[in-house]
Amino acid sequence: MNLCFIAEGSYPYMTGGISSWMNIYMKCFPDYKLSLYTIAARESDKGKFVCKIPENMIHIEEVFLDTPLKKKPKRFPSRIVKSSKQQELLIKHFSGEKVDWAQVFDFVDKLKKYRLIDFFNSADFYEIVDYIYNKDFQNAPYNDFLWSIRTMFIYEFHVLQGHVPEADIYHSVSAGFPGIVGSKIRYNSKKPFILTEHGIYVREREEEILKSDFILGYIKELWIKYFRSMSLCAYNFADKIVSQFQRNREVQIEFGADREKTVIIPNGMNTEDYNFPEQDRIYGDDFVVGTIARIVPIKDIITLVRAFEKAQQLYDDKMRLVIVGPNDEDPQYSRYVLDYVEKRNIQNITFTGKVDYETYLKSLYSFDVFILTSISEGQPLSLLEAMASGKPAIVTDVGSCSEIVLGTFDNIGEAGIVARVMDSDALGEAIVKLAKNKDLRMKMGQAARKRVQQYYTIDYMGSSYRKLYEDLKR
To answer: What is the DSSP letter of 43?
Structure first.
C-alpha cells in the first residue's frame, strides 16, 4: 500500500499538534510505503525538519507559499482568461460564492502555461477584482481588498499546481489547503481521498478572524466565505471524513458534510513512549506550569499569560510558565503578547520558540501541570501526550477537553480542572490550587495516564484507519 499524507504548516517542521499526531500515527503502518506533500510558509524553511522521519517515508514534496511571490511579474499583451465563462467562474470564486470546484481545478491546470505572478498582475485579474470591489466592497480600502484577493488565490493556485507524489490513497490531515489538494487529486486521478479534521477548520478560522484586530471588518466576511468554500470542497470530494468525537462529527455535518461519509476515530497514544527516565528538569526546580501551543489567537496565549500573572499574585513560592511552540506564525499577535509581558513586568515566563523533538519530550517531563487555554480545539494531541506523561491538566471547556479531563463516561476520576474560555481568574486560581497540593497533582496525574491507557490507544486508532484504507482500496 502506498499512502500519501497532505499536511500544512506543521509536520515535519515543528513539534506538537498535528506533527505529534503524525509522529504517533505513522508508527501504525511500518508495512506501508509513505510519502508526504507538505505545505509551509517560507522557502527558508526548506529541509529544516525537526520531526524524525520514518524509514518507510520514500518521498517528501515541499511546497512553499512565498515561492510565486518572489518572482517579478511580466506584462502579458494577450488575455489569459479566455472566455466569459472563465471570468464568471473566477468572479464567483474570488467572491467566496458557491462554485463548481471541478471547474476551478480545470482552470488552475490550464493556467500552468503561465507564471502565477503574471496572472495575478494581469489586466484580466484587475478587471475581476475591480468588478467585485465595485459591486460589494466599496467601503473597504481598495489596496487592502486587492491584497486579500491576491493573497488568498495565488497561494491556492500554487499549492494546487504542485507535484503530488503517486500513491494508492491520499490522506489530508486537515481541511484548508490540504483539503483542496486532496480534492483535486480525487477529481483528477479518482484515487481514494480521506480527510481527517482534528479541529473544525472553518470554525477555527472564523474564530481567529472575528477575534483578529489585524483584518478590517469589511474584509473579514470575504475571508470567512473563502474558508467555508474550501471546507465544503473537501467535504464534497472526500470518500471518508474523520473526526475524533461525536460533537465534531455533528459540526462537520452542520457545515455540509454527508453524514454517510463521516467516521469517528479517537486519537490514540502509546503511553510507553512517555515513560521518561529520571533526568534533570530543564526549566529548573520551581513549580512549572507549561503548555505546548503556537503563539496564535486561537490558542489564546494572552489569557494564559494573564492567568499566570494572577497565579503569581496568589502563590507565595516561585513558579514558572513555559510556552513551547513557534512564535513566528502570527508575528503581530506574538508581539502583542510579548509587549503585554514586558509592560506588566511579568517574570518567569519562558517562550521556547520552535524546539526539536528531544526538547519537546524533556519539556513534557519538566511540567508539573499542563495547561491549555484555547478558544477552539478538537481532541488535542498535546493534552493526551501530557496525560500519557502522567501530568494533571488545566483546560478550557472546548472540543472534547472536558470529557477527556473529567472522564464524563468512566469512573477513573478527574485528571485536572476545567475552566470557561477566556476566564483568566479561574485559570489562575486553578494553577494555584494544583501548585499548593502535590497529593492532588499526583492523584490527577495517575488518573490522566490511566484514562489514556484505557480509552485513547494507538492500537485502536491504527486498526481503525487501516480498515478504512483497505476498504477504500478494494
So the answer is: G
Residue 6: how many other CB atoms lie within 10 Å: 31
Omega before 12 cis (within 30°)? yes
d(CA 267, CA 274): 16
CATH superfamily of 271-456: Glycogen Phosphorylase B; (3.40.50.2000)
At 277 the pLDDT is 82
What are 348-404's pLDDT values in tens digits?
999 999 998 889 999 999 999 999 999 989 899 999 999 999 999 999 999 999 999
d(CA 442, CA 65): 45
Per-residue pLDDT at 77: 59
Nearby residues of 226 by Cβ (< 8 Å), 6 or more positions away: 96, 152
Take residue 328 and report the three cell numbers written for it.
Answer: 513566528
Burial zone of 259 (CB within 10 Å; 0-12 exposed, 13-18 middle, 19+ buried):
exposed
Separation of alpha carbons 372 and 398, rounded Å: 10
Which segments within 334-461 are labelled E, that is strand? Answer: 349-353, 369-372, 393-396, 416-419
pLDDT over 90 (residue 325): yes
Our CA angle for 466, 468, 473, nearest 5°, is 95
Give the span between the Cα atoms of 255 and 201, in whole angstroms: 10
Query: Residue 11 phi/psi, 5° resolution?
Result: -70, 135
Query: Residues 6 or more apart from 114 whose CB is under 8 A from it?
Result: 76, 80
Q: Report the CATH number of the 2-66+163-264 domain.
A: 3.40.50.2000
Q: Name residue 4's beta-bridge partners.
A: 35, 170
Question: What is the reported pLDDT for 76?
Answer: 64
Domain positions in the chain: 2-66+163-264, 69-154, 271-456
| Mean pLDDT (whole number) for 208-218 | 69
What are the start-end ranges of the H helices in 167-300?
177-189, 201-211, 217-237, 246-254
- Mean predicted confidence (pLDDT) in 243-270: 95
Q: 379 with 404: CB under 8 angstroms?
A: yes
Query: b or e along 199-217 (b: 16 or more beta carbons within 10 Å of the residue's beta carbon)?
Result: bbbbbbbbbbbeeeeebee
Element (H, E) at 53: none
- pLDDT tier at 213, thresholds 50, 70, 90: low
Q: Do domains 2-66+163-264 and 271-456 have the same CATH topology?
A: yes
